[in-house]
């Protein structure tokens, strides 16, 4: 009987074959996966890593820590302080309307716009950056789903407007926008990339950085400016600008031996803590960005160059044409007519025609090379952004009139810094230095990455020429000179006035618009500092000897006091009173007359007549309110008399150092910087008088 296969056997064979096929396929696939996994494990595949990390991290732009900015003495000018910012993850906001109402009420925001943001299909939305501490506490207490707090760093400038045009400011993402903050942004900023924050499987951000334990540290920078000298320069400049109802002003204090900038002030200025409330024009550092026609201060450079070439001597006489010089169809004039003047007197009375006669001895090409050597028409190389090179055109393009006017600072433009550096070369013996405002840069590990050194760009004068020019400039502040109001009662100083008519937009020069300046150095025999003061468009009195020279005197004296430079003159100066009528009328256009009684501690007295002072020097002197008879009586009794210096802007230590061995007592109130004193500065008091000085913190 034949045997037949059953259907069950055939089904089992097919099933077994299928199982082997499926098993083999799975084994092959598994093998491929294993081999691929081993390949990825052994190979550094950053792309795969980024794909994986996107599932657990998100990138958030936040304000990172910036390095401190310090002054030359290590005092803080820019620091970081923690601040809370509010953000949202709209995916976890349960009730956008209710949440937006609560948050808008706390943070004083527009509820409608906030509701739109919370309804967006996004993972991260900034609500408000750097909120007040009270607002942050209220947000935390509200415990709203999807609303979170993040700690950021905010930049703070504890001294407010002090040195703002130098320091600059930063934006909300900690990026430098101006000044040192911009110039050294890469060094001061920890990182300019997005910070990575962890998030869990639900997409919720952890509130601490993913690499907090590996956080980098920023570098910090020390500047050459001194906070106290900067304060003095800014205070005196702002008062002068306000008093002259001027458009603006600039001031510089330079160390003539190193090229260090000790102070650099502009007025008006801005508060970097609230930079958004100021126009960007107010952020400018006019000391380096604004080139102007310098006027008569430029004569010092021209005449020094001619002396150095041996083309003229200090006693050589030139015909100044009684104030008129015809150049083609044009006529060059002096402010006051003069006949024959020596080179020394041309400097003293600031004759335009005399300066032009001296410049003519050099010729165009030699004059151009001399001015180029002094740094005009090129960048000084200071470590700040936005510097202007000014304008010094080729001598081939100079017309005869332009060649003449360049001698007294017109037809050429320069920045205040360039002019200050040129006078620095005269003061230091003839070396044209590179200016510095960065003292040193300290890396994250505390190592000094950069430290400034004295850099001589070129020698421009022989030492003997520089010494001669200093003596000539010293005569400018003496009786009959244009800068009498710059003369110090404690230090022998020298300098030059400048009063430049400003160019008009349509060509030519604008009527009634002037740039008035004074640049000088002290002490005369061993200069330590150069001080520049520029006042743009003063109203009323506009000569540099009237509006800028008094500022030079105050800044110079206080800076030298602070730097512990001993006074060179007797401390006591008293003067005859001015009657009420003359005080009410102000300075006479024809000059002032009076008597100054100079008295030293030995009791010796000398009466010096003041008369026929040039109009450029006119301004009502601040005279001691003691009668000459009273002073003479005190002197005759043999009492020691002491002149009280101006202590404003100094620390307590600075006040004591400035007073030196003066036989006066002190009563101090408060702390910080001196803001008020009694007796006032310039008072002449008997030995033993108590001086009260009030101090306040510099905010």
Explain how this protein is built.
- The chain is of the alpha+beta class and 699 residues long.
- Among the domains are: 21-55, no CATH class; 60-170 and 197-218, Penicillin-binding protein 2a (Domain 2).
- Helix content is 31%, strand content 24%.
- Strands 2, 3, 4, 5, 8, 16 and 17 form a seven-stranded mixed sheet that branches.
- A hairpin with a 6-residue loop joins strand 20 (509-522) and strand 21 (529-536).
- Helix 15 (416-428) packs across helix 16.
- The radius of gyration is 36 Å and the shape is elongated.
- Residues 1-5, 51-56, 200-214 and 570-636 have low confidence and may be disordered.
What structural class is derived from the secondary structure elements? Answer: alpha+beta
Poorly predicted residue ranges: 1-5, 51-56, 200-214, 570-636
CATH superfamily of the domain at 60-170 and 197-218: Penicillin-binding protein 2a (Domain 2)
Q: Tell how many strands the DSSP assignment holds.
A: 29
Q: Round the Cα radius of gyration to an integer and report it.
A: 36 Å
Main beta sheet: strand number and arrangement?
A: 7 strands, mixed
CATH topology of the domain at 60-170 and 197-218: the name is: Penicillin-binding protein 2a (Domain 2)
- Mean pLDDT level: 81
Helix content: 25-40%
CATH top level assignment of the domain at 60-170 and 197-218 = Alpha Beta
Level-2 CATH architecture of the domain at 60-170 and 197-218: Alpha-Beta Complex
Q: What is the overall number of helices?
A: 21
**N/C terminus separation:** 119 Å
Strand coverage percent: 15-25%
**Dominant shape:** elongated
């Amino acid at each position: 009987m034949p045997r037949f296969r059953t259907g069950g056997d055939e089904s089992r064979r097919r099933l077994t074959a299928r199982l082997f096929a499926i098993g083999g396929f799975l084994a092959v696939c598994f093998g491929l996966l294993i081999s691929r996994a081993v390949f990825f494990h052994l190979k550094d595949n950053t792309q795969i890593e980024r794909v994986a990390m996107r599932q657990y991290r998100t990138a958030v732009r936040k304000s990172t820590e910036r390095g401190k900015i310090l002054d030359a003495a290590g005092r803080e000018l820019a620091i970081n302080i923690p601040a809370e910012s509010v953000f949202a993850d709209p995916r976890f906001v349960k009730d956008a309307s209710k949440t937006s109402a609560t948050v808008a009420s706390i943070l004083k925001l527009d509820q409608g716009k906030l509701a739109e943001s919370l309804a967006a299909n996004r993972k991260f939305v900034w609500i408000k950056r750097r909120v007040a501490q009270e607002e942050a506490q209220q947000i935390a207490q509200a415990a709203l789903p999807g609303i979170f707090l993040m700690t950021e760093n905010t930049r703070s400038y504890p001294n407010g407007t002090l040195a703002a045009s130098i320091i600059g400011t930063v934006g909300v993402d900690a990026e430098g926008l101006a000044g040192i903050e911009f110039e050294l942004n890469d060094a001061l900023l920890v990182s300019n990339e997005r910070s990575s924050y962890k998030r869990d499987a639900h997409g919720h951000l952890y509130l601490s950085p993913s690499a907090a334990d590996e956080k980098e540290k920023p570098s910090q920078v020390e500047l050459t400016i001194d906070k106290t000298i900067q304060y003095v320069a800014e205070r005196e400049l702002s008062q002068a600008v306000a008093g002259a109802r001027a458009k603006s002003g600039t001031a510089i204090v330079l160390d003539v031996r190193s090229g260090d900038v000790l102070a650099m002030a502009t007025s008006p200025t801005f508060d970097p803590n609230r930079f958004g409330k100021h126009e960007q024009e107010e952020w400018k550092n006019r000391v380096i960005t604004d080139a102007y026609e310098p006027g008569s201060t430029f004569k010092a450079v021209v005449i020094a160059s001619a002396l150095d070439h041996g083309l003229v001597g200090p006693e050589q006489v030139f015909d100044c044409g009684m104030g008129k010089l015809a150049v083609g169809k044009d006529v060059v004039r002096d402010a006051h007519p003069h006949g024959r003047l020596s080179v020394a007197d041309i400097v003293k009375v600031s004759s335009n025609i005399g300066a032009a006669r001296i410049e003519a001895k050099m010729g165009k090409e030699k004059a151009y090379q001399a001015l180029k050597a002094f740094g005009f028409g090129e960048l000084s190389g200071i470590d700040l952004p936005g510097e202007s090179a000014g304008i010094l055109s080729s001598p081939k393009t100079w017309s005869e009139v332009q060649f003449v006017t360049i001698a007294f600072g017109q037809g050429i433009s320069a920045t205040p810094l360039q002019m200050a550096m040129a006078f620095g070369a005269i003061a230091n013996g003839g070396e044209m230095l590179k200016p510095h405002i960065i003292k040193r840069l300290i890396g994250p590990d505390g190592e000094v990455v950069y430290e400034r050194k004295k850099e001589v760009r070129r020698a421009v004068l022989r030492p003997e020429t520089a010494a001669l020019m200093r003596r000539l400039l010293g005569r400018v502040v003496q009786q009959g000179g244009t800068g009498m109001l710059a003369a110090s009662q404690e230090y022998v100083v020298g300098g030059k006035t400048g009063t430049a008519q400003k160019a008009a937009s349509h060509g030519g020069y604008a009527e009634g618009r002037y740039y008035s300046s004074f640049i000088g150095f002290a002490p005369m025999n061993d200069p330590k500092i150069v001080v520049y003061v520029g006042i743009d468009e003063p109203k009323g009195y506009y000569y540099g000897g009237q509006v800028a020279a008094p500022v030079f005197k105050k800044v110079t004296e206080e800076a030298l006091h602070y730097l512990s430079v001993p006074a060179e003159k007797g401390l006591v100066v008293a003067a005859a009173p001015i009657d009420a009528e003359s005080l009410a009328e102000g300075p006479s256009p024809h000059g002032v007359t009076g008597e100054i009684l100079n008295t030293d501690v030995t009791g010796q007295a000398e009466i010096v007549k003041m008369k026929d002072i040039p109009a450029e020097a006119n301004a009502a002197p601040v005279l001691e309110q003691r009668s000459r008879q009273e002073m003479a009586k005190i002197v005759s009794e043999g009492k020691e008399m002491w002149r009280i210096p101006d202590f404003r802007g100094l620390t307590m230590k600075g006040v004591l150092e400035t007073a030196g061995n003066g036989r006066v007592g002190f009563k101090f109130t408060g702390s910080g910087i001196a803001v008020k004193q009694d007796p006032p500065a310039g008072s002449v008091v008997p030995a033993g008088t108590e001086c009260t000085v009030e101090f306040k913190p510099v905010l």
